[in-house]
Design goal:
Layout: E1 2-6, E2 13-17, E3 27-30, E4 34-36, E5 46-52, E6 61-65, E7 78-85, E8 99-104, E9 115-118, E10 123-132, E11 135-145, E12 153-161, E13 168-174, E14 177-184, E15 196-202, E16 218-230, H1 236-239, E17 254-256, E18 273-277, E19 281-283, E20 290-295, E21 300-305, E22 309-311
Antiparallel strand pairs: 1-18, 1-20, 2-16, 3-6, 4-5, 5-16, 6-15, 7-12, 7-16, 8-9, 8-15, 9-10, 10-11, 11-17, 12-13, 13-14, 19-22, 20-21
């Protein structure tokens, strides 16, 4: 057995829900998700979203929502980290996708959510939707096959600056790998209250009860390790689930867009991780540094201040 040492504590956090207290700590959109011990990215609890198109009170949506708890301020940087798990029973019939996390507008939303991940073609397809002229355009980041991730946790980090004035930023990482960047308008001009974060299942094809033939009427998805950091000093390491190491900001995704502008990436500070055996003594030597001690599953076990000497147990 070993422990993982992270070179920085989390800072700048304005919202955190790891579900370890058994509480959802979010509002509901459609049906309410529940807290479960079936799976956990860290600790022993996670959020379960269950949807049955025949019996659920709302047959197409079960989401946890921060609409009433946290609206994003304009032209301010936010970092959002969380984990998603599709169980082994997950299936993805052609054309019957879902959204499992999104940034939603507080306006009419007639262009769809400004940011969301779509699964309709069996891939992680992150869509950044924005106004262009009198209509809408969309930049899409293809982050690979979902089938390769079924039955395991995928870790997400988002850098988001909401803007209606062209100053917005959107960046995404999946499992520590940089997926790409968009700059410009990152919400809609009719968003009057500020965008907000949602996660769970939104399966819009199920609004039509006859949509889906003999496919399973039940879906489940799990979320954990939700954290949101705010401000100019916020960064990837503040919110990364389980302290996932960050790659350099070189996109490996396939992107599609109807704009020709190339956006230049910036470099963010990364965590440093080292693994030590039980019984090792570790000293924090960097000026002002703190070490977070975590088990290999991401569970936080303790911390050491600059100059402290402790034994891993």
């Amino acid at each position: 057995m070993s422990k993982t040492i992270l070179a920085a504590e989390r800072n700048n956090i304005i919202y955190e829900s790891t579900f370890e207290n058994g509480q959802l700590n979010m509002g509901c959109s459609g049906n309410c998700p529940t807290v479960t011990t079936k799976y956990a990215r860290a600790g022993s609890h996670s959020m379960e979203s269950y949807l049955n198109r025949n019996t659920s009170p709302t047959n197409f949506r079960t989401e946890g929502s921060l609409a009433s708890r946290l609206k994003f301020s304009w032209d301010v940087d936010y970092w959002i980290g969380f984990s998603v798990l599709f169980p082994d029973s997950w299936e993805n019939p052609a054309g019957i996708g879902e959204i499992v996390w999104q940034i939603h507008s507080s306006g009419s939303g007639h262009g769809g959510p400004p940011v969301a991940v779509y699964t309709g073609n069996g891939t992680w397809n992150v869509g950044m939707r924005y106004e262009q002229g009198t209509g809408y355009a969309m930049k899409s980041f293809n982050l690979g096959s979902i089938q390769n991730d079924v039955g395991k946790w995928t870790d997400w980090v988002i850098h988001y600056r909401p803007s209606k004035e062209g100053n917005g930023v959107f960046e995404v990482w999946k499992d520590g790998v940089y997926g790409g960047k968009y700059t410009g308008n990152t919400t809609y001009s009719d968003d009057v209250g500020g965008p907000y974060f949602k996660m769970g299942i939104y399966k819009w094809p199920w609004k039509n009860l006859d949509c889906c033939g003999g496919t399973s009427p039940e879906y489940r998805v799990y979320h954990d390790e939700l954290r949101i950091a705010k401000g100019p000093n916020a960064q990837y390491s503040d919110v990364a689930p389980g302290g996932v190491a960050q790659t350099s900001n070189t996109s490996t995704s396939n992107t599609t867009s109807n704009t020709s502008k190339n956006n230049t990436s910036t470099t963010n500070t990364t965590n440093t991780t080292n693994t030590f055996a039980i019984g090792n003594r570790v000293k924090v030597s960097a000026d002002g540094a703190r070490l977070a001690i975590r088990d290999t599953d991401g569970t936080r076990l303790g911390a050491q201040n600059d100059g402290a000497l402790g034994t891993i147990t």
